[in-house]
Structure to design on (355 residues):
């Protein structure tokens, strides 16, 4: 772990906050510089296009890295002042441009984000004496319990026995248990019924697609039959960056357009399009006419596997549903496709008149 890593553990970057903090845009990403210790040293921070941060402290006169402060064995007043000054800068950056994440492993955080976006479910702490345990519920019942666990508790040996993993317990159909137990990364459930629950290690052993399908299946097994009927439309909120895609020009030319599909939208669902910074407001309300359209050269990006056809229903003024107003409806961030809250659906109900 680097000196910088300690300040950003279990945090996620808020890219919109970088320029207000003082970062400048470069071909490599974002760069920030600040002098330290009476202008003798300069802190240089770089956040690449994938959001990874690297940092240097440079001796200005020599234009060489000053790295001695990184060694735990290095002592002395000056070294201590450098650690303190550089650490204070990193703390300010962490507070201003990052948000706390729930878990230490990236896959566990992606799973938590999926549950919020897909089902609008929020985590809770089921055990007062175990704050690291988080549960996701449907109709008050657990369908996913996430917690840190030592490898030896799952029967792992060697070096893996002493490692701490993020684990999720999920409900499964007992008739599927034998097949699931053959998959790497899946274990008999820790401290829950091994007849109908399993434990998944969230260390990238299983791909996200498999994990998300299993957790969705767990939710459907736990949920009462009347919840989330497939015949009812779902209500989505998705971001759009005008720097990369002129959606206004698209809608001016045609009220029906193709849009990248990154979640489980279906025909009949409603989609509100949120324009990212500097606008930060919902501008378009649409309905899905067709979903899961293969990307056969319409978009050059190979990562785009499917598209959906959407129809424009209404154009809002930016003041109608800006970021401050959305907070009143339980929407704090829109980083990717997510479900609208019930409060936002109610506020938009006069405009939800699809065909």
């Amino acid at each position: 772990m680097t000196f910088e890593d300690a300040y950003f553990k279990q945090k996620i970057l808020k890219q919109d906050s970088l320029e207000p903090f003082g970062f400048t845009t470069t071909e490599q990403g974002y760069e920030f510089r600040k002098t330290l210790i009476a202008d003798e040293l300069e802190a240089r921070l770089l956040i690449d296009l994938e959001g990874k941060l690297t940092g240097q402290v440079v001796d200005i006169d020599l234009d060489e890295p000053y790295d001695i402060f990184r060694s735990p064995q290095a002592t002395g007043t000056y070294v201590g002042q450098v650690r303190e000054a550089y650490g204070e800068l990193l703390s300010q950056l962490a507070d201003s441009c990052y948000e706390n994440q729930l878990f230490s492993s990236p896959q566990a955080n992606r799973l938590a984000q999926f549950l919020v976006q897909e089902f609008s479910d929020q985590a809770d702490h089921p055990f007062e004496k175990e704050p690291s345990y988080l549960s996701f519920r449907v109709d008050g019942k657990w369908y996913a319990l996430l917690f840190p666990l030592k490898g030896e508790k799952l029967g792992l040996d060697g070096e893996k026995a002493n490692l701490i993993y993020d684990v999720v317990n999920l409900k499964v159909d007992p008739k599927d248990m034998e097949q699931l137990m053959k998959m790497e990364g899946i274990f008999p459930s820790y401290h829950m019924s091994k007849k109908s629950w399993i434990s998944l290690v969230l260390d990238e052993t299983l791909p996200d697609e498999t994990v998300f399908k299993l957790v969705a299946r767990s939710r459907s097994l736990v949920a009462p039959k009347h919840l989330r009927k497939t015949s009812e439309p779902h209500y989505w909120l998705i971001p759009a960056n005008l720097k990369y895609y002129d959606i206004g020009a698209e809608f001016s030319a045609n009220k029906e357009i193709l849009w990248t599909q990154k979640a489980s939208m279906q025909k009949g669902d409603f989609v509100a399009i949120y324009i990212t910074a500097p606008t930060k407001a919902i501008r378009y309300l649409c309905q899905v006419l067709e979903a899961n359209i293969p990307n056969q050269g319409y978009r050059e990006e190979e990562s785009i596997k499917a598209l959906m056809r959407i129809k424009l229903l209404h154009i809002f003024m930016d003041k109608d549903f800006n970021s401050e107003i959305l907070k009143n409806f339980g929407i704090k961030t829109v980083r990717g496709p997510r479900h609208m809250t019930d409060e936002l659906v109610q506020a938009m109900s006069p405009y939800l008149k699809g065909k």
